[in-house]
Amino acid sequence: MGSRTGTCVFQNREAAGVALTKMVSSSLFLDDINPFGRKNMLFRLFLCFTLIPVIELYLLIKVGTVIGGFNTILIVIFTGFAGAWLARMEGLNTMLKVRRNLDQGIMPAEDLMDALIIVIAGIVLITPGLMTDAFGLLLLWPVTRNRFKRFLRKKFDAMQAKGDINITRFH
Question: What number is the average pLDDT over the span 109-136?
């Protein structure tokens, strides 16, 4: 079995770019990945889009009664701007790492996973609320982002072992 980081060495930048394009385009159109079933996935999405906003409203009301409504709104706006700035900085650093690895002919698998998590963190940070801001900031912090990556890797490995997902590795 190959390296757990998914590192591949290519002879030139073009070969790495072609392999990366094939990997991304093939993974975007996988219809057979549905480990939860349609009904269960619909229920999870329903919970996500109803439970999270209700919790956010509850937290905003509770915090607003303690520190005031205006201060609560300022905190939400500040965390949104600060999170967007942090996501931009982390994203730029990650993209520089991706470019450096591609220049050396190395497949930047870990850096691409970082980039995906940073994009998710940016989306979560744009969503107004205290809980989503805390979750987004945790995803931006490299220590917790690495733990989240390990969790995702274990999930992907378990899905692959069960046959729910097929991962093609380029060597």
Answer: 89
* Backbone phi, psi, residue 128, to 5°: -70, 135
Helix axes 109-126, 69-103, angle to 10 degrees: 160
CA-based radius of gyration for the chain: 19
Give whole-number Cα distances, 24 to 20, 116, 155, 170, in Å. Answer: 6, 12, 19, 12
Per the confidence metrics, is the pTM higher than 0.70?
Answer: no
Q: What's the number of CA atoms in the CB half-sphere (13 Å) around residue 107?
A: 21
For residue 9, what are the β-bridge partners? 106
What is the number of other CB atoms lying within 10 angstroms of the CB of residue 130?
Answer: 17
Q: How confident is the model at residue 38 (pLDDT cuts 50, 70, 90)?
A: low
Angstrom distance (rounded) from CA 109 to CA 2: 13
pLDDT tens-digit profile of 63-105?
999 999 999 999 988 988 888 898 899 999 999 999 999 999 8
